[in-house]
């Protein structure tokens, strides 16, 4: 299998297969850097395509790919998403561009009563049709050149928070828990149907899939998450959210959980109890948390048997590799080819010791 902008795609693909099997002889490292002697072009901004004007975006993606090198296990891809609650729009909710920033969007809640609400995948909805039109335009231009990452499927309690409202959902967990569970079952059913539909539209059977972190899978991958978890106890998380995450990981071949903010750390062990949750991406809160040394958390994730997505320069990657034992470590950086080649040799030697 070949990609025009990743001549060694098949080699990288085999390394990703070994990674998911826990058989990689070194951590994977992805480095995307500008080509020498050319003026680099940036990727389109997040949520580009929201307005339906696809052609200028496609031209910009081509220009970005032509002016960059995709080294190591980096695979060129475009991330198709109209906003953080893109998934919920497939249930019929409306998305609107943020008034203060064109770089994101917000969702209009529509669930006033769980028993009257229609919580299901609506293949005739405006935003699903817009997404399909965008996918088909992208594939007509990019097949055989680069990959397309579909929207992150933010389901579970995060979906209910989007279509019901966070404050109302928080009260519902206490006042009408059975109704919430019924709604979550509807979201799980929709998740399976939407994933199947995306797999057909993006032809996972031929190309495999890639998520927003650059994780490549020969099958199906996405990024389970629950930002709402920061607002609930461990008991509520286990009762309401964990069954959703279990369902999502059972539908995917490979999963990487987005652990966002210090308030979510209390749920780490529960998340890691899921056998098909393969890796964790930790994102500290802004402010003081972003300045902390989180090495103890990385070690805990490692001890719980999960891989991780991390970043840093060559020295930090070597240090993290020496401290963490997992065979499923994935680093993202921006190293030129000669520096990356030296690093990869060093990592191979470290893991042979």
How would you describe the overall organization of this protein?
This protein is α/β, with parallel strands linked by helices and 353 residues long. The chain has one domain: TIM Barrel. It contains 13 helices and 13 strands. It has helices at 9-20, 54-66, 86-89, 126-142, 156-164, 166-175, 177-201, 204-207, 234-251, 268-272, 295-303, 314-323, 337-352, and strands at residues 28-34, 68-72, 77-79, 94-97, 105-108, 147-149, 209-210, 216-217, 221-222, 254-260, 279-283, 307-311, 329-333. The strands form four sheets. Strands 2-1-13-12-11-10-9 form a seven-stranded mixed β-sheet. The longest helix is centred in the middle third of the chain and has 25 residues, at 177-201. The two termini are 33 Å apart. The model has no long low-confidence stretch (mean pLDDT 95).
């Amino acid at each position: 299998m070949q990609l025009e902008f990743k001549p060694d795609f098949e080699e990288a693909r085999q390394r990703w297969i070994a990674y998911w099997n826990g058989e990689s002889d070194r951590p994977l490292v992805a480095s995307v850097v500008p080509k020498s002697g050319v003026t680099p072009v940036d990727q389109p901004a997040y949520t580009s395509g929201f307005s339906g004007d696809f052609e200028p975006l496609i031209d910009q993606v081509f220009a970005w790919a032509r002016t960059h090198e995709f080294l190591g296990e980096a695979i060129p891809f475009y991330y198709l998403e109209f906003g953080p609650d893109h998934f919920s729009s497939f249930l019929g909710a409306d998305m609107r561009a943020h008034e203060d920033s064109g770089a994101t969007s917000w969702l209009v809640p529509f669930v006033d009563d769980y028993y009257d609400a229609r919580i299901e995948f609506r293949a005739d909805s405006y935003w699903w049709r817009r997404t399909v039109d965008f996918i088909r335009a992208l594939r007509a231009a990019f097949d055989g050149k680069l990959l397309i990452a579909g929207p992150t499927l933010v389901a579970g309690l995060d979906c209910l928070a989007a279509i019901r409202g966070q404050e109302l959902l928080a009260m519902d967990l206490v006042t009408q828990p059975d109704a919430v569970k019924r709604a979550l079952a509807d979201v799980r059913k929709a998740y399976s149907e939407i994933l199947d539909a995306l797999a057909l539209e993006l032809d996972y059977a031929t190309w495999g899939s890639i998520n927003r972190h650059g994780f490549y899978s020969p099958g199906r991958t996405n990024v389970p998450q629950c930002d709402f978890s920061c607002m609930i106890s461990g008991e509520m998380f286990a009762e309401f959210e964990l069954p959703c995450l279990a369902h999502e990981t059972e539908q995917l071949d490979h999963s990487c959980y987005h652990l966002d903010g210090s308030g979510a750390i209390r749920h780490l062990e529960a998340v890691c109890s899921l056998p098909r949750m393969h890796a964790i991406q930790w994102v500290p809160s802004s402010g003081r948390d972003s300045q902390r040394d989180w090495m103890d958390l990385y070690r805990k994730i490692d001890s719980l048997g999960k891989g991780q997505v991390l970043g840093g320069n060559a020295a930090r990657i070597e240090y993290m590799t020496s401290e963490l034992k997992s065979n499923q470590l994935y680093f993202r950086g921006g190293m030129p080819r000669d520096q990356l080649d030296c690093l990869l040799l060093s990592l191979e030697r470290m893991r042979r010791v």
